[in-house]
Amino acid sequence: MKSFKKVMAGMLMGIMVIGMLTGCGGDPVADDFEKFLNTDMVDVNANYDKIKEESAKWGDLETNEEIKDSINNGIMPNIDDSLDKLSKIKPETDEVKAIKEKYVKVMEAYKEGYTKMLEACDTNDEQTVTEATEKIDEGIKLLDDYNNALESLAKEKDMKIEY
């Protein structure tokens, strides 16, 4: 009878240890996602706020030179810094890697659009302005896709995103 109790106690102890190990282990995707949002993207998001602030000033700009100055000194440095920071972010899970790549595409579209806008300022070509605007608008659409992906993964992982 004693050996039966020892066997049962050993089995129960083994089950408890297995339960504790699986219970203590976090969801690697949720952990990676939380790190991505709360640590990795902090400076990148701050850069995006600066880009928005700078582009909001465009309604008050009157010359192509002022627009070029805004792009060269306000917008492009923040885009370039964001792309540099993004290149150093190394998510561990495929889900978070895919989300990061969506944001890289946002910044690449913006970079292409604002570079095109610089060209338009030099040439005064309406077609180039249109192409630049379309590329920037594509970046905005890609940003919506990125935000939707964030919301979707947060919902899947029962997490909340605060803006």
Structural class: mainly alpha
> Main β-sheet: number of strands, strand sense, barrel status?
none
Helix-strand pattern = HHHHHH
- Beta-strand content: under 5%
- pLDDT under 50 segments (min length 5)? 4-25
Number of domains: 1
Mean pLDDT: 88
Number of strands: 0
- Alpha-carbon Rg, integer: 24 Å
Envelope shape: elongated
Helix content: over 70%
N- and C-termini, Cα separation: 62 Å
H/I helix tally: 6
Give an overview in words.
- This protein is mainly α and 163 residues long.
- The chain has one domain (27-156).
- The chain has helices at 2-24, 28-40, 42-56, 64-88, 94-123, 126-156.
- Helix 2 runs parallel beside helix 5 (94-123), helix 3 runs antiparallel to helix 4 (64-88) and helix 4 (64-88) runs antiparallel to helix 5 (94-123).
- The longest helix is centred in the last third of the chain and has 31 residues, at 126-156.
- It starts with a helix and ends in a 7-residue tail after the last helix.
- Mean pLDDT is 88; it is low at 4-25.
- This is Lipoprotein.
